[in-house]
Amino acid sequence: MCALTAEINLKTDRHPPYYYSRLLWAKSMNACSWGCHQIPERSFFFKGYQFPVCARCCGTILGHSIAIFMSFFRHFISIPVAILMSVIMFFDWFIQYIGLKESNNKRRFATGILGGLGTSSLYLRMLRILVLKVFKR
User: Fold this and answer.
1) How far apart, in whole angstroms, are the C-alpha atoms of residue 55 and residue 13?
2) Which residue has better confidence, 106 or 4?
3) How far is CA 58 from the centre of its chain?
Protein backbone atom coordinates (compact mmCIF):
# COMPACT_ATOMS: atom_id res chain seq x y z
CA MET A 1 0.00 0.00 0.00
CA CYS A 2 1.49 3.29 -1.09
CA ALA A 3 1.80 6.22 1.31
CA LEU A 4 0.06 8.40 -1.26
CA THR A 5 -3.25 6.72 -0.44
CA ALA A 6 -3.29 8.77 2.76
CA GLU A 7 -4.11 11.96 0.89
CA ILE A 8 -3.92 15.35 2.52
CA ASN A 9 -6.69 17.78 1.81
CA LEU A 10 -4.44 20.71 0.97
CA LYS A 11 -7.29 23.07 0.05
CA THR A 12 -8.96 23.00 3.46
CA ASP A 13 -5.87 22.35 5.60
CA ARG A 14 -4.23 25.78 5.28
CA HIS A 15 -2.82 26.18 8.75
CA PRO A 16 0.69 27.61 8.70
CA PRO A 17 3.35 26.48 9.46
CA TYR A 18 2.24 22.95 8.56
CA TYR A 19 0.59 23.70 5.24
CA TYR A 20 3.80 24.24 3.28
CA SER A 21 5.62 21.31 4.86
CA ARG A 22 2.69 19.03 3.99
CA LEU A 23 2.56 20.46 0.49
CA LEU A 24 6.30 19.88 0.03
CA TRP A 25 5.97 16.34 1.38
CA ALA A 26 3.03 15.54 -0.92
CA LYS A 27 4.83 16.94 -3.97
CA SER A 28 8.06 15.08 -3.16
CA MET A 29 6.16 11.81 -2.65
CA ASN A 30 4.49 12.31 -6.02
CA ALA A 31 7.74 13.26 -7.77
CA CYS A 32 9.64 10.25 -6.43
CA SER A 33 6.88 7.73 -7.10
CA TRP A 34 8.09 7.07 -10.65
CA GLY A 35 11.40 5.57 -9.53
CA CYS A 36 10.68 4.01 -6.14
CA HIS A 37 7.98 1.68 -4.82
CA GLN A 38 7.64 3.78 -1.61
CA ILE A 39 6.47 0.81 0.47
CA PRO A 40 6.03 2.20 4.01
CA GLU A 41 7.55 -0.90 5.69
CA ARG A 42 10.70 -0.39 3.61
CA SER A 43 10.98 3.36 4.14
CA PHE A 44 12.27 5.66 6.83
CA PHE A 45 10.00 8.10 8.65
CA PHE A 46 10.81 11.48 10.20
CA LYS A 47 8.31 13.21 12.49
CA GLY A 48 5.48 11.14 11.06
CA TYR A 49 6.36 11.78 7.42
CA GLN A 50 7.51 8.94 5.20
CA PHE A 51 10.66 9.61 3.18
CA PRO A 52 9.79 10.00 -0.51
CA VAL A 53 12.07 7.06 -1.36
CA CYS A 54 12.66 3.70 0.33
CA ALA A 55 15.65 2.86 2.51
CA ARG A 56 17.64 1.31 -0.36
CA CYS A 57 17.02 4.33 -2.59
CA CYS A 58 18.06 6.66 0.26
CA GLY A 59 21.32 4.74 0.50
CA THR A 60 21.79 4.78 -3.25
CA ILE A 61 21.30 8.56 -3.38
CA LEU A 62 23.83 8.98 -0.57
CA GLY A 63 26.26 6.64 -2.34
CA HIS A 64 25.93 8.61 -5.58
CA SER A 65 26.56 11.85 -3.67
CA ILE A 66 29.67 10.43 -1.99
CA ALA A 67 31.05 9.25 -5.34
CA ILE A 68 30.49 12.65 -6.92
CA PHE A 69 32.17 14.34 -3.96
CA MET A 70 35.14 11.95 -4.21
CA SER A 71 35.47 12.66 -7.94
CA PHE A 72 36.13 16.35 -7.21
CA PHE A 73 39.35 15.20 -5.56
CA ARG A 74 40.09 12.80 -8.44
CA HIS A 75 39.66 9.82 -6.19
CA PHE A 76 38.01 6.90 -7.94
CA ILE A 77 37.27 3.45 -6.59
CA SER A 78 38.92 0.68 -8.58
CA ILE A 79 36.74 -1.05 -11.14
CA PRO A 80 36.72 -4.49 -9.42
CA VAL A 81 35.78 -2.93 -6.05
CA ALA A 82 33.07 -0.80 -7.67
CA ILE A 83 31.60 -3.87 -9.38
CA LEU A 84 31.73 -5.80 -6.10
CA MET A 85 29.89 -2.99 -4.31
CA SER A 86 27.15 -3.04 -6.93
CA VAL A 87 26.89 -6.84 -6.81
CA ILE A 88 26.47 -6.75 -3.01
CA MET A 89 23.42 -4.51 -3.40
CA PHE A 90 22.04 -6.76 -6.13
CA PHE A 91 22.43 -9.88 -3.97
CA ASP A 92 20.70 -8.21 -1.03
CA TRP A 93 17.77 -7.43 -3.31
CA PHE A 94 17.86 -10.85 -4.98
CA ILE A 95 17.85 -12.99 -1.81
CA GLN A 96 14.87 -10.97 -0.60
CA TYR A 97 13.14 -11.22 -3.99
CA ILE A 98 13.36 -15.03 -4.13
CA GLY A 99 12.22 -15.26 -0.49
CA LEU A 100 15.43 -16.71 0.92
CA LYS A 101 15.80 -14.03 3.59
CA GLU A 102 13.90 -10.84 4.38
CA SER A 103 16.08 -7.75 4.44
CA ASN A 104 15.71 -4.93 6.95
CA ASN A 105 15.95 -1.18 6.47
CA LYS A 106 19.43 -0.88 7.97
CA ARG A 107 20.80 -3.48 5.57
CA ARG A 108 18.89 -1.99 2.64
CA PHE A 109 20.34 1.43 3.44
CA ALA A 110 23.90 0.07 3.83
CA THR A 111 23.79 -1.97 0.63
CA GLY A 112 22.18 1.01 -1.13
CA ILE A 113 25.18 3.16 -0.16
CA LEU A 114 27.54 0.49 -1.50
CA GLY A 115 25.54 0.10 -4.71
CA GLY A 116 25.25 3.84 -5.29
CA LEU A 117 28.93 4.37 -4.62
CA GLY A 118 29.89 1.47 -6.88
CA THR A 119 27.68 2.35 -9.83
CA SER A 120 28.46 6.06 -9.67
CA SER A 121 32.16 5.31 -9.49
CA LEU A 122 31.83 3.25 -12.66
CA TYR A 123 29.77 5.95 -14.40
CA LEU A 124 32.18 8.71 -13.40
CA ARG A 125 35.20 6.65 -14.44
CA MET A 126 33.62 6.00 -17.86
CA LEU A 127 32.72 9.67 -18.19
CA ARG A 128 36.29 10.67 -17.34
CA ILE A 129 37.70 8.26 -19.94
CA LEU A 130 35.24 9.56 -22.53
CA VAL A 131 36.11 13.21 -21.83
CA LEU A 132 39.85 12.48 -21.95
CA LYS A 133 39.48 10.70 -25.29
CA VAL A 134 37.32 13.44 -26.78
CA PHE A 135 39.71 16.20 -25.73
CA LYS A 136 42.83 14.01 -26.37
CA ARG A 137 44.55 14.91 -23.18
Assistant:
1) 29
2) 106
3) 4
